């Protein structure tokens, strides 16, 4: 298993087998193109804080605004008449009627949310708002009725009630807008896929069809500059295709017949005829969307903490309000006591808290996606900040996974280097072995024509021999040649010797090349005190070569079981382990590690078992990932402090603890302060940025 473990598992293109039917995670709302783009930031899961089910806040706010303004004009604030206010006979009845409509219409999302929270036995956000508006509304209606019954004026809270509902609706509208802007990674992906496709019919005429109606096997024409509508294989035509938005590869990639193209990538100058291989929710973009929505809808531990804090605030607010009610009834009178009680309940709404985590997550997910980091499990971010060790696979992860000619050496001056390369390419001409293929493509890149050989025979276990221009040549392994060669062999390389008349005339060193960013990755890990350990299925020599260049510890000849046991052993030592791998053989350890990072969206198995996917297959992206983890975790903590800290200070003041020295908070001012903390939290989340690469 160890050596033949890699089959293009790290290629970007074999998305054909990415059948996610195994995933039963919320696939339901993902049918083809019409994704519900709110799925990503649907806050269900934290105690009914699920705004989408409770109406569109923009519309609610705009329709409630005129009623709210009339109420505020006609009812004095705290019994003080402001210059722009006026009253007339029975204006208070009109106010009571309008307030009733406003309570039922504008207040609906809040009490519906509160019902959800109580059902889950987890009162929080919505329960608090409902408490605030209900107390002020019902007390005010009582005040109006009492005024007509007794004839004396009882102070009402209609002004506070109306301003509170309006401010709460406005705050939610801003919140939804912010959440929407932060988390639109999926919508952006959906927009990459065009709405219509040009289908080529039997008689070569073109019919324009909606992308949703494409079938596997349809032939479509993609004009220059258009986006590719679905995943498929090029039948004819050549062009350069820009896949940057999909795979993160910034350079346009040359595409010829037989190559695969990904839906959502942009065609360059040529016209392509593409046969559709995958449509709808089987397509690569849709797979990625599903991943993003799974990632975004997973409540993280921090989010559960936010809901817990909201619960505490609910109980604290109710208890403090009751204490205030009793104390103020003793030292003052009922209306005063009710003012403080209402104010306390109104101010306790921890809106900023409900936003604290989702906003950061949404922002972090879309930032990550733009860097080719798909974070499936949000806890991965938190865990990464405390990681101690990282286990790395070699082939295809730290290295390109393909044989490359690293060096060509001459042993005498009979031939030039170009002539040696021409002989090497010629003698390997008929072979499909990966080593042969890499020599042939090396010659092509150098623009060298292979020498044509008359006959080529395989020497069993040693190499090949053949005749050209009357000379006999052999290309054999270093071991078969059996004599020492005077040359520096690149670390971890395999050597083939070109022999003429029993004399070495040249040699070619082949090896699996390290990815250019692997070195940066190792430096980044060491800088963050994460110990890198390379575990590879390759032999000792190849492993040692790569490990020495990178300067890291290594284990060679590792089976999937060995890798799994290595992760187990590290975890038993109380270490937090990150695993980085790319293939089927890494899957068990990816799943076991605290954080599993899969390289490339290649193997389905790696995708399923990892917490994070590097869509660009670039190990250097882990540096960005560590940075994203640290910054996201920090922002979450900051936001929790902003969101909750404000309440712990505001509640006692609202209850009148500072009244003896003349400081009190009105419900309206409380609501303004609360909206302010919400805005601060939103701005703080939006300032999450990554260093430019």
TrEMBL record:
InterPro entries per record? ATPase_P-typ_cyto_dom_N, ATPase_P-typ_P_site, ATPase_P-typ_TM_dom_sf, ATPase_P-typ_transduc_dom_A_sf, ATPase_P-type_domA, HAD-like_sf, HAD_sf, P-typ_ATPase_IB
Q: Where are the transmembrane segments?
A: 60-80, 86-105, 126-145, 157-174, 309-331, 337-361, 640-663, 669-688
Q: Where is this region: Disordered?
A: 1-52
Q: Give the range the annotation lists for the signal sequence.
A: none
**A GO molecular-function descriptor:** ATP hydrolysis activity
**GO terms under biological process:** copper ion homeostasis
- Write the record's keywords in alphabetical order, separated by commas: ATP-binding, Cell membrane, Copper, Copper transport, Ion transport, Membrane, Metal-binding, Nucleotide-binding, Translocase, Transmembrane, Transmembrane helix, Transport
SUPFAM superfamilies with a match to the protein in the record: Calcium ATPase, transduction domain A, Calcium ATPase, transmembrane domain M, HAD-like
Which stretches are tagged as biased composition: Basic residues? 1-13
EC number from the UniProt entry = 7.2.2.8
Gene3D superfamilies per the UniProt record, alphabetical? Calcium-transporting ATPase, cytoplasmic domain N, Calcium-transporting ATPase, cytoplasmic transduction domain A, HAD superfamily/HAD-like
Where does this polypeptide localize?
Cell membrane
Q: Where is the composition biased (Basic and acidic residues)?
A: 14-31, 39-48
Q: What is its main location?
A: membrane
Question: So what does this thing catalyse?
Answer: Cu(+)(in) + ATP + H2O = Cu(+)(out) + ADP + phosphate + H(+)
Please tell me which top-level EC class this enzyme sits in: translocase
Annotated P-type ATPase A domain residues: 192-292
Q: Name one GO cellular component term.
A: plasma membrane
Q: How does it sit in the membrane?
A: Multi-pass membrane protein
Q: Which family does it belong to?
A: Belongs to the cation transport ATPase (P-type) (TC 3.A.3) family. Type IB subfamily.
Protein name per UniProt = P-type Cu(+) transporter
Name the species this protein comes from: Atopostipes suicloacalis DSM 15692
Q: Provide the taxonomic classification.
A: Bacteria, Bacillati, Bacillota, Bacilli, Lactobacillales
């Amino acid at each position: 298993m160890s050596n033949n473990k890699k089959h293009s598992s790290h290629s970007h293109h074999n998305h054909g087998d990415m059948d996610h039917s195994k995933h039963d995670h919320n696939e339901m709302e993902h049918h083809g193109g019409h994704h519900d783009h709110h799925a990503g930031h649907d806050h269900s899961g934290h105690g009914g804080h699920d705004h989408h089910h409770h109406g569109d806040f923009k519309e609610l706010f705009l329709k409630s605004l005129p009623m709210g303004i009339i109420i505020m004009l006609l009812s004095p604030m705290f019994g003080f008449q402001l210059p722009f206010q006026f009253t007339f006979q029975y204006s208070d009845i009109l106010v009571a009627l309008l307030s009733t409509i406003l309570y039922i219409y504008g207040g609906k999302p809040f009490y519906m949310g509160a019902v959800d929270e109580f059902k889950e036995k987890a009162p929080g956000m919505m329960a608090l708002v409902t408490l605030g508006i209900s107390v002020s509304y019902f007390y005010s209606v009582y005040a109006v009725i009492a005024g007509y019954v007794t004839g004396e004026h009882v102070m009402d809270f209609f002004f506070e009630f109306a301003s509170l509902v309006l401010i709460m609706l406005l705050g939610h509208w801003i919140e939804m807008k912010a959440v929407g802007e932060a988390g639109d990674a999926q919508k952006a992906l959906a927009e990459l896929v065009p709405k219509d496709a040009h289908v080529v019919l039997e008689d070569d005429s073109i019919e324009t069809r909606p992308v949703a109606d494409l079938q596997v096997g349809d032939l479509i024409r993609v004009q220059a500059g258009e986006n590719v509508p679905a995943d498929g294989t090029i039948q004819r035509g050549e062009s350069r295709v820009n896949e940057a938005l999909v795979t993160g590869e910034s350079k346009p990639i040359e595409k010829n017949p037989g190559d695969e193209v990904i839906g959502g990538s942009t065609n360059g100058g040529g016209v392509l005829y593409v046969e559709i291989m995958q449509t709808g929710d089987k397509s690569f973009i849709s797979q990625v969307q599903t991943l993003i929505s799974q990632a975004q809808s997973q409540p993280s531990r921090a989010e559960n903490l936010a809901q817990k804090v909201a619960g505490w605030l609910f109980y604290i607010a109710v208890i403090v309000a009751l204490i205030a009610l009793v104390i103020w009834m003793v030292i003052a009178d009922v209306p005063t006591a009710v003012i403080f009680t209402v104010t306390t309940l109104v101010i306790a709404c921890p809106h900023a808290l409900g936003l604290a985590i989702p906003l950061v997550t949404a922002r972090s997910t879309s930032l990550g996606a733009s860097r080719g980091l798909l974070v499936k499990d949000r806890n991965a971010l938190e865990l990464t900040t405390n990681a101690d060790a990282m286990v790395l696979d070699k082939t295809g992860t730290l290295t390109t996974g393909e044989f490359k000619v690293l060096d060509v050496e001459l042993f005498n001056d009979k031939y030039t280097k170009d002539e040696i390369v021409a002989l090497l390419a010629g003698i390997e001409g008929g072979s499909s072995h990966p080593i042969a293929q890499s020599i042939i493509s090396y010659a092509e890149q150098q623009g060298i024509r292979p020498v044509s050989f008359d006959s080529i025979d395989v020497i069993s276990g040693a190499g090949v021999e053949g005749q050209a221009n009357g000379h006999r040549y052999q290309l054999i392994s270093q071991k078969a040649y059996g004599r020492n060669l005077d040359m520096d062999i690149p670390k971890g390389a395999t050597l083939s010797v070109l022999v003429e008349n029993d004399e070495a005339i040249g040699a070619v060193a082949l090896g699996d090349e390290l990815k250019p960013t692997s070195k940066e990755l190792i430096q980044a890990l060491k800088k963050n005190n994460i110990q890198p350990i390379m575990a590879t299925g390759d032999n000792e020599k190849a492993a040692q070569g790569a490990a020495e260049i990178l300067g890291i510890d290594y284990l060679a000849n590792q089976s999937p079981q060995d890798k799994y046991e290595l992760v187990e052993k590290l975890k038993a030592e109380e270490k937090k382990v990150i695993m980085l791998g790319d293939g089927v053989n890494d899957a068990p350890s990816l799943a076991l590690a605290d954080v599993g990072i899969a390289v490339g969206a290649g193997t389905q198995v790696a995708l399923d078992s990892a917490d994070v996917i590097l869509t660009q297959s670039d190990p250097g992206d882990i540096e960005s990932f560590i940075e994203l983890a640290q910054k996201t975790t920090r922002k979450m903590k900051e936001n929790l402090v902003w969101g909750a800290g404000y309440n712990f200070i505001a509640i006692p003041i609202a209850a009148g603890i500072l009244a003896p020295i003349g400081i009190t908070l009105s419900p309206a001012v409380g609501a303004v302060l609360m909206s302010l903390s919400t805005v601060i939290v939103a701005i703080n989340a939006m300032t999450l940025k990554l260093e430019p690469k």
